[in-house]
Amino acid sequence: MKKKRRIWMENINYFRKECSEFKLFYELTNHGFRTYFRMTRDEFEYLHSLIDDIKKENTNYREAIGTKERLVITLRYLITGTTYSALSKSYRIGRSTLSEIIPVVCESLWIKLQPKVMKLPTEPEWKVIAKDFYDLWNFNNCLGAIDGKHVVIFSPRKSGSQYFNYKKTFSIVLLAIADAHGRFIMIDVGSMGRYSDSGIFSDSNFYNVLQNNGLRLPADEPLYEGGLPQPYVFIGDCAFPLMTHLLKPYPDHERLDKDQLIFNYRLSRARRMVESAFGMLVHKWRIFFRPLDVKISTAKKIVKAACVLHNYVLQNEIEKAPSQSVFSDNMSRNYSEVSEQNSADFEDGFFVKEYFMEYFNSVGTVSWQNNRVQNVLDSDRITHNLH
Predict the structure, then answer these.
(1) Ranges for the DDE Tnp4 domain (predicted)?
(2) E strands of the chain, at which residues?
(3) CA 230 to CA 235: how far, in whole Å?
(4) How does 241-260 read in b/e, with b if 16+ C-beta sit within 10 Å?
């Protein structure tokens, strides 16, 4: 028997037009608007013009919530990380209504923005990405940095330990490739938290397309004039497999010589842009500050929407993007090593990796790399002597 509705609308919601936080949309100064919505008014209006499919018609019983208000509510949910209950009080809208609005708007944002701000690059666009990595991070022939991020969720009902990860939380995984400015090139969302980065990568659409030469990558080019042609590559940490088009550091559990340490430093310096992208995503869209208390399907829509919004906002700020001096040059260390499954690809990747290492220690050297690596060696020597 269907449960009888106790009330049609809470009393405070009758005064939505007079008391809703939505009134701020029209009252904020330009600076206040940018701080409140993470974008300018013009950027908001353009975004609003894209998602015309979220419109609802008025009924005989009530006036529909307008599309601007629906977008405002969703943006504030993503920006503040507040709960449905708190948001419903601020905007004088029922919690159940919010739970319908937010997934629909998030899905529309992904559908409409993804082809504009996260489409698969063409060959000339891949070369622009590679040039940016060289100009900003001194890494040649690099097409992107790849890594995974656990998005914490509340344990789904009857899911057991499927979403339970090594950090002792429940999560879905965002696997992402970022460019030299921290924009996402490709993402894969929704894998269960119990899987490793390497397992998620091998099951991802990116891996399948990469293996089948479907990414329209540029042809091999020399790292320097007169050198041998080398493939364009993606870079990741030790959790990922070594492949012809995917490089990773030499593992720390082996005794590394100075040349290998310099390779690791140069790779890690460029690879951290995907970590920076995750950092910018989380601090701008603070929904990731707490566990997502929504269905898995809704959580995926939220993550996808936040990623395209991240790209949309960053794209409009690209001329003012942070320079390399903003980020720390600390050499990141990687501990988790995985086995290689494709021996032929691994062998090709090994020779590519060795060539890059030789290049970084000869023609492609940068003035500060020896000091950076020497500092690490000195620190390790002091630590060893203390023990």
Answers:
(1) 146-311
(2) 142-153, 170-178, 184-192, 221-222, 229-230, 233-235, 246-247
(3) 14
(4) bbbbbbbbbbeeeeebeebb
Chain CA centroid to CA 281, Å: 7
Residue whose structure tokens are 């879905």: 172
Find tokens 């009252």 and name the residue: 27
Is 61 strand, coil or helix?
A: coil
163: left (phi over 0), alpha (psi -120 to 50) or beta: alpha
CA torsion through residues 343, 349, 352, 357, sign: negative
The ranges assigned to domains in the chain are 11-117, 119-291+340-377
pTM over 0.70: yes
CA distance 157 to 32: 41
Q: Identity (one letter) of the amino acid at 356?
A: F
**CA-to-CA distance for 187 and 292, rounded, in angstroms?**
19
Find the helix or strand (DSSP H, E) in which 134 lies. helix 123-137
